[in-house]
Amino acid sequence: RLEEALKYLKRSANDAKKACNDWVLINVLIMTAYLYFLRGDIKKCLRDLRAFLNKSQKVQATVQPYPFLLALSMAMENGDLPKIKGLSLKEEINRKLRGKNLYMKGVAYRYKSYLQSIENQPLEKVVASLNLSLEWGKMSGHTIHIAKTKLDLARAYLYQKNDAKAYALAEEGIEALLPLNENLVPDDFRSLMAKSSKPDNQLKEILQVAQEVVSIRKHKDLIQYVITTVNRLTGAERGAIFFIDNETPQGKLRLGGSKNLTSSQVDHPNFSSSIKLIEKVAQSGAGRIVQDDPDSNDDFFSNETIRSRICVPMFLRDKVVGVLYHDNRLLQSAFEESHIDLLSYFAAIAAISIDNSMAYEEIHRLNKKLSKEKQYYQEEHNQSLHFEEIVGNSPAIRRVLSQIEQVSETEAAVIITGETGVGKELVARAIHRLSRRHERPFIRVHCSALPENLIPSELFGHEKGAFTGATARRLGRFEMADTGTIFLDEMGDISADIQTRLLRVLQTKEFERVGGTTTLMSDFRLIVATNRDLQKEVAAGRFRADLYYRLNVFPINVPPLRERREDIPLLVYYFLNLFSNRTGKQFDGIEEEEMKRLISYDWPGNIRELKNVIERACILSKGSYPRIPELDNEAGPTGPSSGGFTLKDVEARHILLTVEKTNWKVRGPGGAAELLGIHPSTLRFRMQKLGITRPPITKR
Hints:
Radius of gyration: 33 Å
Largest sheet: 5 strands, antiparallel
CATH architecture of the largest domain: Alpha Horseshoe
CATH superfamily of the largest domain: Tetratricopeptide repeat domain
CATH class of the largest domain: Mainly Alpha
Strand order of the largest sheet: 2-1-5-4-3
Structural class: alpha/beta
CATH topology of the largest domain: Serine Threonine Protein Phosphatase 5, Tetratricopeptide repeat
């Protein structure tokens, strides 16, 4: 039915042009190019293919969730289509393999097997590619792709003289394709079609549904599963389950779930005839099929004209509790009388299973409520506030938590300031978790830990051969953060050159990989952190003013631990519980004198230092109470309030004391990096930056 498909696609293209919807137009162009190829109209195929490529490049459409471009590239490889400059089957396969779409990965491996066959590669490699194709196909759940791959594997096994395996796979592939469209079965497998029958497939499907509905706990997932299965078996386009609210006088209908049918479409006047049908079925308790009049003058292209309907009641304990409804807006004879019995079976299963799953959800809800109440009372008992790993109850930390809640739902850039070790990354992660992007990636970049010459490659990525050692293309952090959040830690340490490049990315969200010419786009949310005073850096000319003002949309200052000493006991007990579980030891608490030591200490390394001290205490202590080890400079305060040190002085002093304590051992167990809780490479970089070097060993 190529002509019919082309008719709909042409109308869709016109609508897309009127609406200036480039994404829809791109999809239509590749589909029409493929259909013209199937029809043998090479001229129109190439016309639409070139239009698709030009349009995709213009709007930078990198996501292509369809197999048609691979099919056309394959046709060029086989000589069935003239080759187009810039289009290569091998490159298209690799692009799809690098992508995240499970279905397209499966298709790409199938086409890789075709290419391997053309290149006369060993049959084992072809089979390996097809097995990977099947594996990705099963993960995506795409029935047609899985069936086609099985048939291709069957061919390969026939060449390997493995007839038993070949015939088994062939029968599985044919059995999957027959209920959909027997024309999908390739000519060379037609002789096996007689061994597969539609009723057998339906019986298997029914038995499979009966087994699977038992394992589906959520009633919404169960509804979707039943509707989708019926759509597939009957050829329905849309489906829904309507529940009857028996608490109302007239038993009002309520949409319980649907597939390809929205609540606004249900409320549309064009759906009123379907509502009447559903009401009649609910009242009579008998299923019905209604077909549109073939001579109807309704607009054939209308999206709301329903041409076939089927409807059956759902019984529970001899009472109609709902209606299973399906329709088709294209075919006037989509449903047969035998479908009434089929739908009635599914309706019966759905009624019982949904009732069970709703009861399970109610039990789960009550258990969850009890669990939350228990957690609430525990938190009240502890009198602590634990906000996504941010522990504290002081006014200072409450102010930070309030700011997190205020900014998280926005897309505003956030700059987090504070001394080293105060927990700036925890604040950034909390903002991401509470934002609309919480299911998307959170990408962290520790700017001060990266050598200057590697920062551009790390942030923007690089192309193969861009520099010595660039043996493959690498995605940059901005590219990885697309649709998610990127967190630039220690932002104040980057050079003027990187600042300039960053400013452009923040202004346009466009960038190029190192050694590349293609401009890429990324939809990211930016959060930065620094332990420097950027205003002073701007005044000193070390930080660009325009970049600072673009970053400084919503500042959050995280106070040092010495300014919220009332939180120290909460943090101590939090870390004590954490590390006692890890070490398998049981402690009764902290002795009062030890707690006074911890509260009076100024903590130049802030929470990170406190965490390390408590961990060390848990490791070294054997009694009921952990013994707090000696604290650095415990005899005198180290904070800037009393010593006049800059933050840089404090950091250098703290690192120096730590490496001297470990006899200049940086990495490994008991090394300075482990005590400070940072990576050895990061510690070496910070030592180099702060000018900390090991003194020469004097000979005696």
